[in-house]
């Protein structure tokens, strides 16, 4: 993999991302690849869903990312009785002025943590859709922009299915990545315990980047070159999933794959995307957007097969 660098913007974006990765690694042990994938999504302008069993550090990872930036941060604890207005805000009558005033909800922040998002009903989950896709919120017919940059990091647990609500396909499609942390190995878990003795290290995390640095890094990432062969490769991967699943990766998924690949390129100090970048993030970009029938392989297996069977360069007579 080339480490060629081009331009001060890529260098600055890479330094910002590296500083944040190292800062988060002070809190999260043994998940370096997951941390880098999350940073790739942030650089690519995407939102991230963290899914796993309780107690493996999902919320801590989201908090560590937010604490690494000097930006506004809000946490929403999703519960069955949470209402959409509890997220977006609402108009409240002011008796002193005799007028309605808008009181913004927690969605009006640079980084929004939606904790255990699948504990709230679909109508409440959907309150995030407009903000995630269009960077704005509409309340009582009036549209207001959310802060820029804007990032949603949501967590959901994979147990107690009878007490949770499945995220709608439209909402899942708006998360660039779905990541899993998994259980740490023995040494990593011992280190986690050691760091937690006498207080948690998250309380000592200081910002290492400004909100302006994040905005600049995103701008630099958006200018990373995605050549025609890379775009065609992504399209063939998506087509492979559509031919073998009840619901394959959407065009939004293809765009997310490219943008996450651009983020990976910046982390490597490059101004162009390589097939390696695409292959590294496809397993966390495509599967959560897909639906398979009971008699079909699951989404993870289909994406793995796509990466094995779809050539980077098409056959001379065309890909069938």
Write up what this structure looks like:
With 320 residues, the chain is of the alpha/beta class. 43% of the residues lie in helices and 15% in strands. It has helices at 7-25, 32-43, 58-67, 85-88, 122-125, 129-134, 169-172, 186-196, 211-222, 228-244, 251-267, 275-285, 299-309, and strands spanning 48-52, 69-70, 73-77, 89-94, 99-104, 111-115, 136-139, 142-145, 151-157, 177-179, 209-210. The strands form four sheets. A five-stranded parallel beta sheet has the order 3-6-9-1-10. Strands 2-11 form a two-stranded parallel sheet. The protein has a two-stranded antiparallel sheet with strand order 4-5. Strand 7 and strand 8 form a beta hairpin. Helix 1 packs across helix 9 (211-222). The protein is globular, with a radius of gyration of 20 Å. Mean pLDDT is 89; it is low at 1-5.
């Amino acid at each position: 993999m080339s480490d060629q660098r081009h331009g001060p913007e890529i260098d600055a974006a890479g330094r910002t991302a590296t500083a944040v990765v190292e800062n988060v690694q002070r809190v999260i042990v043994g998940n370096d690849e997951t941390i880098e994938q999350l940073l790739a999504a942030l650089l690519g302008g995407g939102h991230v869903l963290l899914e796993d069993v309780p107690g493996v550090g999902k919320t801590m990872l989201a908090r560590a990312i937010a604490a690494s930036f000097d930006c506004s941060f809000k946490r929403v604890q999703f519960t069955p009785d949470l209402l959409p207005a509890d997220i977006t805000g609402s108009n409240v009558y002011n008796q002193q002025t005799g007028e309605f005033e808008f009181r913004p909800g927690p969605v009006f922040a640079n980084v929004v943590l939606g904790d255990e998002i699948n504990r709230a009903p679909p109508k409440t989950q959907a309150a995030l859709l407009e903000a995630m896709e269009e960077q704005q919120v509409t309340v009582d017919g009036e549209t207001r922009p959310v802060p820029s940059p804007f990032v949603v990091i949501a967590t959901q647990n994979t147990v107690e299915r009878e007490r949770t609500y499945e995220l709608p396909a439209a909402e899942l499609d708006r998360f660039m990545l779905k990541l899993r942390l998994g259980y740490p190995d023995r040494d990593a878990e011992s280190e986690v315990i050691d760091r937690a003795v006498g207080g948690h290290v998250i309380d000592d995390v200081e910002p290492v980047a400004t909100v302006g640095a994040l905005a600049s890094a995103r701008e630099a990432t958006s200018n990373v070159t995605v050549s025609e062969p890379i775009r065609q490769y992504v399209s063939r991967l998506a087509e492979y999933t559509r031919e073998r699943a009840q619901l394959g990766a959407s065009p939004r998924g293809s765009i997310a794959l490219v943008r996450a690949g651009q983020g990976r390129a910046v982390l490597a100090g490059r101004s162009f995307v390589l097939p390696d970048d695409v292959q590294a993030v496809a397993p966390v970009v495509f599967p959560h957007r897909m639906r398979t029938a009971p008699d079909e392989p699951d989404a993870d297996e289909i994406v793995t097969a796509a990466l094995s069977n779809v050539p980077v360069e098409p056959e001379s007579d065309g890909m069938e």
